[in-house]
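Weekly structure sync - notes
Attendees: PM, LS, DV (DV joined late)
Agenda: review two folding runs queued last week.

Item 1: First target. Sequence and structure tokens pasted below for the record.
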Amino acid sequence: MPRQKLSEFRAKTIIYGALGLPYRGWSIDTSADLKLQLKAVHERTSHVVVKVDEGVKRRFKQGLVLLDVAPADVEEAVHKLQSRGYRWLIVEPMWEYAKTEERYFSLALERGGWLCRYSQSGGVDIESAASQVKSMLLRPGEDPKEVASATGFSQAQIVALEAVCADNAFAFLELNPYIVAANSVQLLDAAVEVDDTAAFFVDDWQFDDLRFHVGHQLTPQEKLIQELDATSPASLKLNVLNPEGSIFLLLSGGGASVVVADEIYNQGYGPQLANYGEYSGNPNSEETYLYTKAVLELLINSPAKQKVLFIGGAVANFTDIAKTFAGVLRAIDEVAGKLKTQQVKVFVRRGGPHQEEGLRAMETMLEKHELLGAVHSPDTPLTEAVDEALKEIAHG
């Protein structure tokens, strides 16, 4: 299932709770009333840290972590990060400590248990100190005494971290850096990846706690899909990578989005990839119509001379192909004239319940409007279908 990043605020709330420690922090949504959200921060007397909370890596080096901010200056700091296109921020108390106190800890789900990696040297330069990072596979029921003594966590806390990861569908947890002081720990930065489909089964986080970093001000199409996703039991994600791109994707779940994007990059077409995302969880035809309409708006607005639309996915277990394609076909039919004028070609590869009916309707529609690139069943490997679409770009 797709792995997505959990907000740092939610991750810390869960982890601190598992460790039996209090957590003090504030999640800030810059699209909502800031004065109301910052009221509790303004009432503080000590300085705070303000940072982006959108799953962005290397935030400190990108200037997305503002340190030692006076309570009176928090709103200004928030606006500074908001102006760079970020919606979600986190505000926390400022901790004074020596860099030599920084530590590193992570847990990654493996077949035999949890792969634990730890080091008494942590922080933003952890990659350059990789030789100091030790690793150990923590198997269920085994005594974590060695890891506990090396990390500053108690044995009970290590067991609790394993349990909270399992209970909340964490696939990866990273604390970097954290510090150990006065028989306690402070988590300065935390990163967690989860199986996003588990939002239906866990209590401590929901879809709203997931972060899909796009690194720019949201386009109208991205905003629309975010709003649609928030009200649907299905999963609908859309990130615009290059509004002037030539390769547009309409992907369903099952890991297909990763396979398709990897193949495009491996073939050297990464800079031309316009969007990334997926629809999954058996969306209805109205939802796929709106999703497709958003992608087609981006495609039509792109100034690229040669453009292709790739509609792909794995072999679905439950998603009704004919039903979801009905929404896709409706959206294509509405703008078929514009697509034909721009000489867009559409390539399809999909499988699952009612695939014959869905693929037949898709091929008929595309032929009618002279948009047909190719339509494939699962008999054609997904990467082969992608390569066929890329050849259209190369020959255009």
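Item 2: Second target, run right after the first with the same settings.
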Amino acid sequence: MSDQKDDFMVNHAEDASWTPGLRSDFEYRDLGIKDATGGRFGAHIIRIAEPEADHHTGKHAHMTDFQMIYVLQGEARFWFDGKGEVSVKQGDCFYQPDGIMHDALWMSADCELLEITAPGEFETREG
């Protein structure tokens, strides 16, 4: 068990700040977990910023210790190396093992995803 003490924090929806991130057609809402845990974990919500854009991300991989996605609303379709195409909708979730090559193929205009990672900052490798 770690001696590190995390900070208590609350992130209110009414105070949400959406910023551009890794992909320009998406917006990200940082939930404050990275700061509260000294970077050990991260959590943010991803949503569509440009509904008319092609949300295909291209093949890439994230170098993480842990990464899971929960679909808050809408639908999406992804491709995962060795698994093929996977469709998800509101209430579904998936775990992405470290370094698995993947590609976001399509997301509905109302799609919002909760992503939780360890660590909070991680490397993305284009495939």
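Discussion on item 2: The longest strand covers residues 66-73.
Action: LS to circulate a short write-up before next sync.
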